[in-house]
Amino acid sequence: MEQQFQLKHHGKLSLFEQDQMVAEERAWFLRRLEKEFNDRKEKEDQQMRSAPHPRTPSVSKPSMPRR
């Protein structure tokens, strides 16, 4: 069930299309999705490490309208 969900949700493959695939083809798509997720996470991690740390902005009290 989990593999069907991954292929349906992330691979945009209908259940009919999945049923028409041979087991090796489904396995390839699942491995490819896993590689895509890992690559994306690695890229995001790399960007986080290389990005300058933003300063925490000081929080000021909202000004009240004068009457």
Short description:
The protein has a domain at 22-49. It contains three helices and no strands. It has helices spanning 2-9, 15-20, 23-50.
Q: What would the keywords be for this entry?
A:
single chain; 67 residues; mainly alpha
Task: Describe the protein's architecture and organization.
There is one protein chain. By secondary structure, the protein is mostly helical. It has a domain at 22-49. It is built from 3 helices and no strands. It has helices at residues 2-9, 15-20, 23-50. The chain is elongated, with a radius of gyration of 23 Å. The model has no long low-confidence stretch (mean pLDDT 86).
The rounded distance between the terminal residues' Cα atoms is 64 Å
Order of helix and strand elements from N to C terminus? HHH
Question: What's the total helix number?
Answer: 3
Low-confidence stretches: none
Total E-strand runs: 0
Radius of gyration: 23 Å
**Tell me, what's the shape?**
elongated
Structural category is: mainly alpha
Helicity, as a percent range: 55-70%
- The mean pLDDT is 86
Largest sheet: none
Content of β-strand: under 5%
